[in-house]
Amino acid sequence: MRPSNARGLVALRWPAAMATAYAATFVLVYYISVHTVRGRVVSDASLRGALLSGASIRDRVDAILDVVSVGSLLGAVATVAVIALIRLDRVRGLAAVGVLVTANVATRVLKDHLLVRPDLGLDEVGPSTLNSLPSGHTTAAFSAVAALLIVLPSAGRVAVALLGGGFAACISLATMFAGWHRTADAMAGFLVVGVCTMVAISVVVACGSPRRHAQAGLGLRWWVVVSAGALSLGVAVGIGLSTVAPVRDSLVGSLLAFLSAGSLIAGTVLGVLAGMLWVLQVTESDTERYGEPA
């Protein structure tokens, strides 16, 4: 049945707050990595490190990136639809498909029409004024994970989040090995999916779809701790490299910058996933507390 007004107000505040946090982080990532000299030079160093590291596995990188295609997205839509049908939950199925569509469309619009990459007079590996943020490949892979989290029962979400998040992180690193994207592009892709997922969860809550069931402990506190640690390490290395140009521009500096990129990507995907799982959990808990009997 449709949720009561009290339950709706309580439950909707959580996805709204998380969407705001994701959006604010997106703006911060975009500004630092695109509009500041320090952000640009460290980002360029990490891309150089990725190209050096991935030179010997280029064929494997291409194979990994070929997995993400229009066909794979259609496959994700079909999978989501089947799970929703099995669970007799049309609202969640439509919301999950909405994440797949809106996240990928939003990424394309942001990258091609709304966001710009100004010329700061820097000598960079990639085209200095060609905006590549957010990463389309990262968004496509991660949106499939988010869609599954929406339609799956709570018991299966942690495993899917870990496996899917790892896959999405590998895709984002592969785009760096191929020279297509920078670190912030992947981080922005994760955050775009996060915002779209919070909107989808709000729709689910507003339509009264959340079901009453026991909530298993997800251990999300540790997800947040690991995410914060990885992000802090990545930022610390980046700041260090940005202040010591001779090291940053050396081979060792490029490799360190790439390791910093990997840490930032891992921290971002873990943090966004933790937010998704927590909001799904708390909105369903609110349903149990405030919802009307099924």
UniProtKB/TrEMBL annotation:
Alphabetized Pfam families for the sequence: PAP2
Ranges for domain Phosphatidic acid phosphatase type 2/haloperoxidase: 94-202
Sorted UniProt keywords: Membrane, Transmembrane, Transmembrane helix
Official protein name in the record: Phosphatase PAP2 family protein
InterPro entries: PAP2/HPO, PAP2/HPO_sf
Protein's UniProt keywords contain Membrane: yes
Coiled-coil zones: none
Residue spans crossing the bilayer: 12-32, 63-86, 93-110, 130-152, 159-180, 186-208, 220-243, 255-280
CDD domains in alphabetical order: PAP2_like
